Every structure is written in C-alpha cells, then in structure tokens.
Amino acid sequence: MARYTPAEIERKWQDAWEADATFRACHDPARPKYYVLEMFPYPSGRIHMGHVRNYTMGDVVARFKSSCGFSVLHPMGWDAFGMPAENAAMERGGHPKDWTYGNIADMRAQMKPLGLSIDWSREFATCDPDYYGQQQAMFLDMLAAGLVYRKNATVNWDPVDMTVLANEQVIEGKGWRSGAPVERRDLTQWFFRISDFADELLEALDGLENWPEKVKLMQRNWIGKSRGLQMAFSTVDAPEGFDRIEVYTTRPDTLMGASFLGISPDHPLARALERHRPDVAEFCAECRRMGTSEEELEKAEKRGFDTGLKVRHPFDTAWELPVYIANFILMDYGTGAIFGCPAHDQRDLDFARKYGLPVTDTFVALDGGEPVGDVAFVPPKTEPVRWVRAFAWDEVATGEQAVDAAIRFCEENGVGHGVTKFRLRDWGLSRQRYWGCPIPVVHCPDCGVVPEAKENLPIELPYDEDGTPIDFSIPGNPLDRHPTWRNCTCPKCGQAARRETDTMDTFVDSSWYYARFTAPHAATPTDLAEAEYWMNVDQYIGGIEHAILHLLYSRFFARAMQITGHLPEKAREPFDALFTQGMVTHEIYQTRDAAGRPVYHLPEDVEGGKLKATGEAVEIIPSAKMSKSKKNVVDPVNIIESFGADTARWFVLSDSPPERDVEWTSAGAEAAHRHLGRVWRIANGIAEEMDQGGGIAAYESEGEGAAPGGEDDLTLRRALHKTIHDVTMGIESFGFNSSVAKLYAFTNTLAKSAASLPARREAAMVMAQLMAPMTPHLAEDIWAMLGGQGLIARAPWPKPDPALLVEDTVTLPIQINGKRRSEIAVPRDMDAAEVEKLVLADDAVRKALDGGAPKKLIVVPGRIVNVVV
RNA sequence: GCCCGAGUGGCGGAAUGGUAGACGCAGGGGAUUCAAAAUCCUCCGCCGCAAGGCGUGCGAGUUCGACUCUCGCCUCGGGCACCA
C-alpha cells in the first residue's frame, strides 16, 4: 500500500517550485503587492526552532497572500556583523569573516529544506562589502544632512584587557574575561540625532494601527515625553562659576517639600569639586566603578555624598538645602541635577531616611492624611488630594492641576520656565570592534574629521595584516592596532591621514535591510522606483525582544533615509503591520570553568544531565529564551530528517498561539507526523477510488452543474465551507493554531463521511489548499494525485459559500442563575417570545421555578437564555 | 529598581461579556493481529456510589451572566540604550 514519504515528495515539489520560479518576486504594476518580512537571523551557524516558527509564520502569510492574488515579496538575509564572530575567533582561532560566511552557508543549507517561499535571488548579508558600502554612503549623506555628530560618551572599560566591554560582557560589575572591576571611561563617539525626532516618533505611533498596543506603549514609555519645570537654585559658597544649579523636575508642585539637592557624579559641579577634594574624588571614582547600564545603576544601593554646599530655596532665601552627589542620578537625563521631595517619591524618601534629611508632606489623602512614614505618598496625578503646602492653587486639587499651576506661578515669578523633555537619548553608533561596518571618516592633522570620499567606498575591513591573518586572541580593536589599514590620505587636502577605527553598531545594519531587499543589487543604497512599488513592509514578524530598540531605530532610519533621498515619503513608517511572535524557550545547560565562570552547552551535547564528551554533570537552569550565548537551542534538522519539513512546520504552528512563548518539546512532533500521514492516506484512498471509477477524466465534468448529492454530500459541504471560513479567518488574524485545530477537526469529518466520491474529492482538494500555506509539499502532492491543475501554490484561495455557512436550527443553552442547566433546539430565527414559552416549558426550568415565576428572563437571540429565579 | 506582558485539566492550549476545557499530547478501555508495529473505535477537569457540588494564579468589585471588564496582590517571562 502507498505511503506518505516526505523525504521524496518534499524534494520533488521544491524542485518543481524552483523550475517554475514560483517565489520570484515580480514588480508587476498590474497587481497589488504584498511585502512580508521576518526579522532576519544572526548567522550563528545553526537554525533553531525559534527560526522555524518565525519563518513558517511568515511563509504562511506569504503563501496565503500569493493565493489571494498579491504579488508577494518574501526575502531572506543575514544580520551578519557582531560580537559572536569575534568571540569565536578569540576562543577557537580563525577569522570572523570565514566563520560568518561558513555559518551562513550552513544555515542556508538547513533552511532550504523547510520549503519556504523565499525569493533567494535577493539574499544578502550585512557583512557583504556591497551592503555595508551602501551603508557607508548613507552615513555620509546623513552626516552632510546634520543627522550625525560626535560627542563624548561613557563606555565600560576593562582595565586589564584594555578593551571596551558590551553591557552583556559586564557580569556583576566585572569584565567577563579578566574578572577585573569595570570602570567607566569617556570616549569621543558618533551619534545619530534620533532625539530630534522624539516628538515625531511618539506622535506617529498613533498611526500604527496594526502594531500591538503593548509595543507602542513600550515605545511611548521609552521616548518618555514629560512636561516639567526647569529652574535654578542659587548656591551658597560654591566654587567659581557654580552660583546656580539648574534642575529639572516633573513635580514642581512639590517644591515646598524639597529636602535636598542631588547631582550626578558626572555633573560639572561634581567634577569641579573632585579636583580639589579627595573625599569627593573618592566617592565619584567609586560611582564610576560600575557598568554603564541603567539596570545596574538602578539596582545598586542608593548612595549619596554630602558636599557640604548649600542652595537657597527659591521661595524663601533663608531656607537652605544641602547638596548631595548621588549615584542614581543620570547626567544624560534632564540637567543631571534634581531636588528631592521625600514625602512623594520613594527613592527620595529612602535617601532622606538614610541620611537623616527632613521629610515634609506637601499634600495628604482626602480621607485620613497621616504624615508620611516609610512609604512615600504617591497617588496618581489625576487623583484629587488635600494640599497642606500649596503655593498657587486650591486646597483640594489633583497633581495635574497643581503641576500646571506651579509652572505658571514659577514662570510669573521668574523662577524657571516650563519645558518639555524626553527620556530618549541620541543613538551612539560607535563600537570599538573589528567585525562591523567601518565608519567612513578620516582624521587629518590639518582638516580634522573629514568624511571619506564616496568614490573610495566601500571602506573594506582588512582580512590580514602584512600577509598574516589578523590575530584575534589579543584583546582590543584589531583595526586600531593594524599596521597599515589606518593609513590613508585626507580626501580634502591629500596629505597623510588616519582612518577612523571605530565600526558601527549592528543596529545600523538592521535599520534599513528591509529597504535594501526591494533592490538588493542596486548601485545606490536603494532604487526609488523599486522602493516606491514594494515599500512598505505589509507584515513584519519578529520577536517581542525587539519591541523597542530595533523597531525604534528602524523607524528613525526610515525618516533619515527619506531626508537624504533614499526612501519615498510613504516609507516614513516602514512597517505597516507588526506581529510579535512569542519566543521558543528551552532549558539551559551550564558548567563552570576553572575560574568559576559559566560555560554553556548545546542540548545535543548533553545527555541524561551529563556532557556526552566528558561525562561531566551539567547544571540545569529552567527554561528561558533560546539564545546563542546560552546555547539552549534545539536543532530542527533532526526533526526534518526524520519526519519532513511539513511535520516541523505543522507542529510549530499547531501547539501554541503565535504571540505566546512555547517551550519546545519533542512529544508533539510524532503526533503531527501521524496526522499528516493520515491526511495523505485519506487523499490517496480517494485517488484510488477514482482510478477504479475510470480515472480523473470521469470527474472533470463534475463541479457546479453536477447533480446535487444526497444529504451526506450536503453535510460534508457545509463542514467544508465552515472550515474554509474558519481557516481563512485564523490565518488573517494570526490564529494559526486555531486554523490547524479546524483542519484537524475537518480531517475527522472527512474520514467519517459517507458522501459521494466527487464530494469527497472536492473536499480533499479544498482541504489541501487550506493546508498549503502550512504544509505546502503535502498539499501539492494531494493536489496532483486528485487531478488538480498546475501547482497548488498558484491556485486561487477558496472562498466559502455564504449559503452553506448558516444553520437552520440552533441549540440554545439554558442557564439558571448563570449556570448552564439545560438546552433547547430552536429554529435560528425564532422570536424571543416563542423561545420564552419553550424555555418555561423545559423540565429543568420548571423544577427550578417550582411553580413560581422567574424574577427575570434574558433571551439573547441565537446565543443563550438565562433564567433568574 | 523602572517599563511591558503572561498565568485555564497530568501537559500545550480553545472560548465577539453568553454551554469553560475545542483541537492535540499523555493516559485508560476495546477492535484488528499468531504476536507486535501501524491503523481504527471509545473514555478522559476535580470531588462524589449517586443526586449534586467545586472549578480559568490569589482577593475584592461591576453584571442576569466574568477566563474575558475594574481595582489590589502573587508568580513567571521580556526590555532597560555596547547581545542580536
């Protein structure tokens, strides 16, 4: 008996698609286009189930839209720059370039058997000089347009390895390799002026109707627009040039509860003091012995240092407040100085209690009104409170009203002015690393910082040094110590100059790849005609972990590209719809090296809690996001080899709602495979019946005009059209798991159906079409064996017949006091009065009423009845 | 610490404010088979012999009716600007 053989049919149909160029994106002005994009992968060397899930979802959308008549663009590329390549070179030798391109070849080979409807002719990697050369050209245009500038910024510095560390490389305040306490260090770096766009990036979120609310909310909070008061406190006995300290506050209404002034350790006053005061210098140095991440600063114990300086309260010059240097105040936000109001801010309160500073209530709750103890009173700004130290508003007012009044009062009295500030900072793009896009500028002794000439692009990364491969075992930036690469001539004056040795943040690479896919081989960054046709991305799909940075940077970049003429106006917001898929999680296996640092292991290297190679026991850390660095990734190649790509695809779609996390298990894979085998056998059985009945030709004349079948045929057709409707709705709303469930249910219906052969043939063919976006190879095979014309991939999507979707009778559940107790079958359109009569005649209802009348009787037509007794 | 999510049977999960547990996994029973595999049929939230009662993380609230809406907690996950 014939069997389902995925290994054979998957190869067969992939070859057929290849020969047909089915997935080649066609710039066809006559058809509407649809651009579906999944976030491109980092080429770690192996695909994992997260990739399979991500790309299968995109593939379902791409194939579905294609069947619906759209000209689809569905490309794939590689986010190929970044630290792991350099780390690999350090750990295992070799070159980042060879490692990366080797990984890309491996991953492409693992991905192709999935049968994704990708136009591979558009593939590129961000580390291709052709790509990053165009990126350099855009950088120069953005520099000319004033979108890029240089300023000082703080980095994590490893004093032993003499190298800059990423936040990820700082573990508990120490360098991951050296173990040395990390220091903060200032470097001159390049920045994109994203904060100039803060307001626009915020406002435009409202127009992104097909983005998840939570992502927009996260971006709103990240941009952090606030209205507040900027004002100065005058100082007493401060050093020269510091007779005033500017502070920014969002709660000027609490000014009468001020208790101290806090300044950042990086504030100019702190820096001035530390020059002459060893005690200040020591405290500031200690503050700087910490990483740069906000998380680390916020989690650190809140500490302050009393400078001994005082400031005068603006409303009462006799009232003096102490000035503290505090480790939790960021120089990057506001003015780097705050006033503390302990009664209405928990952090200020903790600080005040710790250093014995006064706590003064400025308002109390309407009911009660006990003074603040160890919990600050911080009601929502919209809640009315009773003010005990108001200075320009009513005794009872909300925080909002008080803030507005306070700003007005301060402005009228010459104490500062209302300002709007954003939390969003400019985007620092300089990285002191090798494996990234070189920043195309030159440092000339006479001309200073000079943009490289466009004709010299791309500025390529050097592969070796003096004929020998670059040695990555030495910490630090190989470009910086390369013997010749830095040497160049000034594009302006022609004399000897030095090349910039910093490379770009890899977020730059991923901020415009979607645009490059529309014309991947163009001699300019984009081709405006192609961008005009293909942009925007109609459906973008990726992980929630990119909700803020990648997506915000991309939104900024689209604007910057438009300003510099690389994208049309309509691409200002590049992603029309966003879907954030959940992550695939897995256990983490960890051992420790001699120095006690964690070493992670791939699941396939672990068996029964021990390393296969050495037998060493591993520590099992509970399921977490699959990540390259933790090595808790599962290799889907094994699944594809034993069950086929369709099984892998069907399984990742079936088990969990797409936006939710899923823990990968092997248990369901066999079930998925069993089901696909069953579907194939049902179709094959129908094909064999057809053969016995005279072959396909005998059924070709059937169809619309054919004699109506019996009751069984009608029942099957009703179920089929309901399934068409449900599966289509599922795909359109990203409810792939629901679509899969409906297809399971319909398979059962079809298997048990006593309908005529033509009806079952039709049902099997339509079912194949409905399955085609998910299990495309199986669908093609069934389509072919049942006599379908051409490729199912090119067949139009089936439409449900509305007449077959409505049922004549419905079952109404009867609730008594909200609990289901009975049910009645009634004609679909029976009026409520008739229904009521039937309900009151129902045994369960009569029993519950016990002869009395119901208190209330609610009839929701066609849905439910509730009797309140 | 701050911002954003998620919690439903043994497990993954379904459910425009309207029958909680669709569909699948695991498990039980049966058919077929010399036997097994494969396949097919069937049962399956918890307590209870039953009648019935209890059930969507916990506690309140709104409603004729709450997994769904509101408020307060708990737990887990994501992000926090140099991981990608």
Automatic annotation (TrEMBL):
Coiled coil: none annotated. Residues 220-363 form the Leucyl-tRNA synthetase editing domain. ATP binds at K628. The keyword Signal does not apply. One of its GO terms (biological process) is leucyl-tRNA aminoacylation. Keywords: Aminoacyl-tRNA synthetase, ATP-binding, Cytoplasm, Ligase, Nucleotide-binding, Protein biosynthesis. GO terms for cellular component: cytosol. InterPro entries: aa-tRNA-synth_I_CS, aa-tRNA-synth_Ia, Leu-tRNA-ligase, Leu_tRNA-synth_edit, M/V/L/I-tRNA-synth_anticd-bd, Methionyl/Leucyl_tRNA_Synth, Rossmann-like_a/b/a_fold, tRNAsynth_Ia_anticodon-bd. PROSITE patterns: AA_TRNA_LIGASE_I (PS00178). Residues 715-833 form the Methionyl/Valyl/Leucyl/Isoleucyl-tRNA synthetase anticodon-binding domain. It is found in: Cytoplasm. A motif ('KMSKS' region) lies at residues 625-629. Residues 36-170 form the Methionyl/Leucyl tRNA synthetase domain. Its main location: cytoplasm. Pfam families: Anticodon_1, tRNA-synt_1, tRNA-synt_1_2, tRNA-synt_1g. Belongs to the class-I aminoacyl-tRNA synthetase family. This is Leucine--tRNA ligase.
